Amino acid sequence: MADAQQLSQAAFDRLKAEYDDLTTRGRIDIARKIEAARELGDLSENGDYHAAKEEQGKMEGRIMHLGRMIENAVIVEAEVSGDSVMAGAIVTIVFDGDDEDDAERYLVGSIEEQADDVTVVSPGSPMGAALLGAAVGDEVEYEAPTGAVLKVKVLAIA
Fold first, then answer.
1. Where are the beta strands (DSSP E) in 17-138?
2. Is 0.90 topped by the overall pTM?
């Protein structure tokens, strides 16, 4: 499955709930807004109508995006052993030349797994791919999109 989207069960459930809400309540709410705006008269100069139609377009785009993600979802268990970085792990790293006080935390996974206190890095990104399989104390290098080669040290895995 080329478009497979790896998600935890919690992220899948959250996305499915959003999808279900948008395809039911969301569509009904937008239809009501459009109908109310139509009743105001001339549609060519009706800001409420145009705003409602724009909102409808954005919502339908989100529905399509969520539908594709749900359809292509592969539920993965976060096998966080603490021994090496795997998808679903939260890793604390420090960039080469920085103090350990400047350490940063990253969740190696899907953006849909995002938590407030960590930045998400995709396992398919240069940094994420370099971190996969690394152990505490390992230093890994990767090429940033700018072409610069960066080195990070793994301080902790959770």
1. 73-75, 90-95, 104-108, 119-121
2. no
